[in-house]
Amino acid sequence: MERTLVLVKPDGVCKNLIGTVTPRFEQVGLKLVGLKMLRLERPQAADFYKEHQGQLFYEPLLSFMTSAPILAMVWEGEDAIKTARSLMGSTDSREAQPGTLRRQYGTDNRRNLTHGSDSPASAEREIAFFFKPDELFSYGASDWDLEGTRAPGA
Ligand code: IDP
Ligand code: MG
């Protein structure tokens, strides 16, 4: 099963959209296996986005990403990387496909609500960036249903 890192960026958190964004990933069949809220420090944001160092938008991106808390999530499922990115839509919210999260709730090409890993290699790096192995969980759909294993009357 593939895993991908998804962030709700500061705009999504500040607009109270956590409860709007997360069900969308559940609805396409992905499973949440890791979750935390944190505020990025500038050096962390710089490291996370280091592939974009030197771009005109790099410094404003770091300011944006450190402006408020973010939600970091790991979603698991078949084709999780592509599935999550198609749900989000393309980078510029103004040009993203109608119905995508970025188009519905993002603002422009910087303030675009969510991040999603773009390849298995980035997913591996980005998941490890935010989560220790014991902060990620494996579980099945019926793991909670322990009735058959209980002693009578318990
Ligand atoms: P992605 O998030 O769709 O993978 P990337 O090209 O990896 O897009 O860019 C990382 C982030 O940098 C974007 O999500 C967006 O917040 C910001 N960004 C990308 N291109 C621009 C731009 O041209 N102007 C302003 N911000 C940008
Ligand atoms: Mg990217």
Describe what this molecule looks like in 3D.
With 154 residues, this protein is of the alpha+beta class. It has 7 helices and 4 strands; from the N terminus they run βααβααβααβα. The radius of gyration is 17 Å and the shape is globular. The site of inosine-5'-diphosphate has 9 residues, from loops.
Rg over CA atoms: 17 Å
Provide the succession of SSEs. Answer: EHHEHHEHHEH
Biggest sheet: strand arrangement: 2-3-1-4
User: What bound compounds does this protein have?
Assistant: inosine-5'-diphosphate, magnesium ion
What's the number of extended β-strand segments?
4
Poorly predicted regions are none
Largest sheet, if any?
4 strands, antiparallel
Instruction: Determine the N-to-C terminus distance.
Output: 36 Å
Average pLDDT, rounded to a whole number, is: 97
- Estimate the global geometry from the Cα principal axes: globular
Fraction of residues in β-strands:
15-25%
Give me the number of helical elements.
7
Structural class by secondary-structure content: alpha+beta
Helix proportion range: 25-40%
